[in-house]
Design goal:
It is a single chain. Helix 2 runs parallel beside helix 3, helix 8 packs across helix 14 and helix 11 runs antiparallel to helix 12. By secondary structure, the protein is α/β, with parallel strands linked by helices. The chain folds into 2 domains: 227 residues, Aldolase class I (TIM Barrel, Alpha-Beta Barrel), CATH 3.20.20.70; 67 residues, no CATH class. The chain starts with a helix and ends in a 5-residue tail after the last helix. It is 41% helix and 15% strand. Strand 2, helix 3 and strand 3 form a beta-alpha-beta unit.
Amino acid sequence: MNKITQLFGIKYPIIQGGMIWNSGYKLASAVSNAGGLGLIGAGSMYPDVLREHIQKCKKATNKPFGVNVPMLYPNIEEIIQIIIDEGVKIVFTSAGNPKTWTSHLKSHGITVVHVVSSSKFALKAQEAGVDAVVAEGFEAGGHNGREETTTFTLIPMVKEQISIPLIAAGGIATGKGMLAAMILGADGVQMGSRFAASVESSAHENFKKTIIETREGDTLVTLKELAPVRLIKNKFFNDLQELYAKCPSTEALKELLGRARAKKGMFEGDLIEGELEIGQIAGLIHEIKPVDEIFEIVLKEFEETKNKISSFSF
């Protein structure tokens, strides 16, 4: 039993990213049923929708699952209260100060994990009393760190600084990637992009197909002035680049971004005007598969690679 399986009461140290517009109860329950930890992505849900997904998830699995809460979203007080009322036992917080909600959640017997992009923030999260951190490298999809530290360098640096369990994220979608992260000091891994391209993901089929067609160099981090996000290059992305060429104000960027741009792309399948968030590892994802098959493939490759390493010599 490793630190992560022990902390969450799960079989494998694999956590599914709580991605907006991808992570409904179907995906979360499928990951939990496969032996990992499924997360409902609260960031794209109104409070009443979140409550509904939590209730459906409880019916779909008797295994542990959690909720991912980006703290920069509105209705945060209401969302936290719903999580407590519904008896959710695991919460991943991101995009905000972990001090804000950690002690409140823990006072209700909830295990709290915070997502960070640097050693400095990992230490702050540990000081805030979280039970574990997710250290997410620059390769990741969605909201990203401004420091541009890659997973391969971030994990050992964070490991050196903290004493609580460490989950690696960013650029991990295979058994080999999982093993590499754990060799570097991670106790477990979080995968987002791989599960976004799963049968159970709530993303639009157009977006899922785009993920498996994405190749190396097809994504780029942008919008650092607002909240850094890694996007697939499409018309909306190109419009952004044209605006950047004019040295825009933050207001001009906000105006172009508008509202519900991520929903338009990932949930409604508008590949032209939508915001398409995915990690660099999409270049290694070639098929949309059911969650249980993803687990089977990742775990088999993990074991085979681990056995192969013992024969390496110089």
